[in-house]
Design a protein that fits this description.
32% helix, globular, 20% strand, Aldehyde Dehydrogenase, Chain A, domain 2, alpha/beta, 484 residues, 7-stranded mixed sheet, Aldehyde Dehydrogenase, Chain A, domain 1
Amino acid sequence: MSLIIGDPPIIDSLGPFGPRRMQVRVPVVDVRDDTLAELSLVPPVFIEHALAALGRASPLPAGDRLAALERAGRLFASDTVAGLSRDEYHRTVCRSTGVPVSVVRFGADEVARHMSEMRSIVKLARPAGAVSDRRDTRTANGSGLWVRRGSVFGVGSSGNYPGIHAGWLEALALGYRVAVRPSRQEPFTPQRLVMALRSAGFGDDHVVLLPCDHGGADALLRGSDLASVFGGDEVVARYADDDRVFTQGPGRSKIIVSADVDWRQHLDVIVESVAGGAGVGCVNASGILVEGDPRPLAEALADRLRSMPSLPPDHDDAVLPVHPEHRARAIEKYLRKVAEGAEPVLGGDGVVASLGDGSAVLRPAVHLLPDCSSRTLGVELPFPCAWVAPWDRSMGVAPLANSLAVTALSTDESLLDELADHPTIRSLYIGDQPTHWSRPGMPHDGYIGEFLMRSKGIWTSSQTNPDGNRSTTTQARSERLEIA
């Protein structure tokens, strides 16, 4: 680790009674293993008291929540928050994650846009037969009422991309009080969000930042009414039977190319699916299934990926992820292990490009698999890494099961119907759209509102004036109601 001049900044916990600085702190390091900051860790008992305070708090009225989110989005996007300007924040995140600064900018702007469009986003998951307030005039005939499943939402956040924080902001819009455990790798985005939200009108007992160790993470999950966690297959399996926990695991996103389509006309979208956003996302394509000979596609993809430059993450032209060199070497070693039996088309002689300062770029890899039944097709790595395999129609869509996103380059209506109907394919793009494409309001792994909310039946007696007309005050109020 490099020598540090002066004391690094300390990221305090932001509890329900204001900031707290703890004696136990851990370093937040960059891609060269230099210390960027120290993260103050709270003990489980602190978390228990914080969650109790959140449970006692009443949410802001719906309209006030939405207005506060819009204000917070503007602060998050443009202002100096936690001592960092917009540009300083972007470059700090790119140094801590190794994600190119252009990708960080895009992800942060994506979060701000999500906040600005929350008024429409929160309505999308609500069933057409449900209303968001018991005073809605439709309840006089009986309807569904869209209600929260709890009061406190606990978030174990990931640290690979700013855009992943958009989901818990929706919970805040729906009236949940939210406790966020930041990633030790990248606590800067959730810190910036929580501080912006508090400046915009949310109370300290509405949204908190609780850095903690694994014991604290367990306390957060136990003490929250509902929670979300990021992790690998082990984490997903651990909470598979717990309907209180929304798990976000590997994406294993894929592309399928049927013989009725000339893949050469779609090479740009194939390359973008694999390498867009530096290839670090769960929505980047890691598997490509080709009806017919997959070799020409694999070689063309490799030729395009080979030209990507190896640059530090804070360079404006950087397009590939960077890690401390020792970690990059460990990922490369793992790649060699899982690629046994596959034919390397790109990256067979290594994927690590040292930058000479203790950091290294992870360069793209493309491998040919003998068939699409190989378990290797499901391997997902944090850089542009594609497994290309032959596919034929006798296999059906089973090789694409459990994919977060699938881009289908096909005009075969029966195949497209099967993909659309398959319950474990969570997003489907038919035609020229990369697997990582999204927009505010587009479900990622379903709508998070489907997890946070439920419908209850409701009927209210007709509220009428002596002349038999609906109360104009009640009617006017119901017409203003937009969300839960």
